[in-house]
Amino acid sequence: MKTYDLAIIGAGPAGMTATTAACAQGASVCLLDEQQTPGGQIYRSLNHCDEQRGAILGEDYLYGKTLIDPLSTIDADQTFGATVWRIDENGHIYFSTHGQAHRIQARHIIIATGALERASPVPGWTLPGVMTVGAAQILIKSSGLITEGAVLAGTGPLLYTVAVQLISAGSPPTAIVDTQQPANYVTAAKYLPSALARAATLKKGLGYLAKIRSAGIPFYRAAGDLTIEGSTAAQALSFSHKGHTVRLQTDNVLLHQGVIPNTQLTRSLRLKHEWNRAQRCFHPQTSDWGISSQSNISIAGDGGGIGGAIAAQAEGHVAALGALQSLSLITTEQRDAGAQPHRQTLKKEAGLRRFLDALYPVPEEVMRPSDHTIICRCEDVTAGEIRSFVKAGCTGPNQTKAFGRCGMGPCQGRYCGTTVTEILAAENKLSHDAVGAYRVRAPIKPITLGELASLTGTGD
């Protein structure tokens, strides 16, 4: 079994910069990622991006080359197509590639597994023809496939980004249904002064909205009560708008209500987590250096709280320096000096994030859906059934498994978990921290008996 100073799980902006920073200090480093190439979700398939696709996805996507290219010049073991399915407290990491399981050990581990797109449980969201805005963007990045005739529904920067990308691809959305409410502007206004440190980013966002307007795409603001109609597939999206019900005929609906940290690995390690009110999700507790409640585990990037790609890049540097200092590979003075410019970046990005969180909050109808709305799509459990579990004495997500198999499907609660916590907190009149989240156990990804057996005889 090979041992490293530092193992980094995830090759997005945080993982890539952490790897490069650690190697620059002479540490022995292993980088593992589930995709076949580096970049994470934000820079997915960038190494295989042609000029036409790059023009569609834009400069922010192409910027990822500045993080990916250095990986080819550093001395680190990099394994792509690696599914990490277990991490132990002693630093043992189990992963599989090509049907073969492997085990390594690291003195310190940085988990940089990024974010998941938040589920948008509205009536009809499980019908064929409905997917997330992020999934549509992945199709563009990974294979150049363009969604045609889509209605985009929800809110947040990614909604507008993908709308502009579809316009650039020559397949503009037929409509945008925005759930953002006018009151959000008032709430967000107090954070505007700190957000202006990222004025260029704000200007870019305004430019996206202007491009959507100039394309003549119908834009319904302050929409609510979203319902996707159809029996065997999506046929229409109906919603309330200015006191009226609007019905848009479509067989392609793209939903988006922001992203949340991917906490499967951190939950499996029993690290301490807390509820973030502004972002309405759980995230691991960390020190200023990204170190978790377990001293040999650090978190960097959106997996520790949503901050965006630039913040994740800075957090990767900071987490690497913090880990190296804890291993006595650099001094405290070296750590602090190296982190200073990245901390300045994080301060600016934090100001922008507070503004965005207030401007694009998750609607109550998404977090506390109507009774007939499916919440756990793996097991077809509705919001009404979860509320009935409460009446029978259910106080936490793990109990919902016993009451009605909620969270026991293939996704292991990745997508329904946050909504289940919201419903139980509201019904039981408890805090989200008191309600908690699903207990995650290894393996966190499906593996075969053959993969487990492949460890036999290897000393693992």
How would the blueprint of this fold be written?
Blueprint: E1 2-9, H1 13-24, E2 29-33, H2 51-57, H3 59-62, H4 65-68, E3 77-80, E4 83-87, E5 92-97, E6 100-111, E7 115-117, E8 130-132, H5 133-143, E9 151-154, H6 157-168, E10 175-178, H7 183-189, H8 192-195, H9 199-214, E11 219-220, E12 224-229, E13 236-241, E14 244-249, E15 253-256, E16 259-261, H10 264-268, E17 273-276, E18 281-284, E19 297-299, H11 309-326, H12 332-359, H13 364-367, E20 374-376, E21 381-382, H14 383-391, H15 397-404, H16 417-428, H17 432-435, H18 449-453
Parallel strand pairs: 1-2, 1-6, 2-3, 6-19, 8-15, 9-10, 9-15, 10-11
Antiparallel strand pairs: 4-5, 5-6, 7-16, 12-13, 13-14, 17-18, 20-21
Helix pairs in contact: 1-11, 5-6, 6-9, 7-12, 11-12, 14-16
What does this structure look like?
This protein is of the alpha/beta class and 460 residues long. The chain has three domains: 2-116 and 260-330, FAD/NAD(P)-binding domain (3-Layer(bba) Sandwich); 119-257, 3-Layer(bba) Sandwich (FAD/NAD(P)-binding domain); 368-435, Arc Repressor Mutant, subunit A, CATH 1.10.10.1100. Helix content is 37%, strand content 21%. The strands form six sheets. Strands 1, 2, 3, 4, 5, 6 and 19 form a seven-stranded mixed beta sheet that branches. α1 (13-24) packs parallel to α11, α11 packs antiparallel against α12 and α14 crosses α16 (417-428). The mean pLDDT is 96.
Give me the count of strands: 21
Structural class: alpha/beta
Radius of gyration: 22 Å
Assembly context of the chains? single chain
How many individual helices? 18
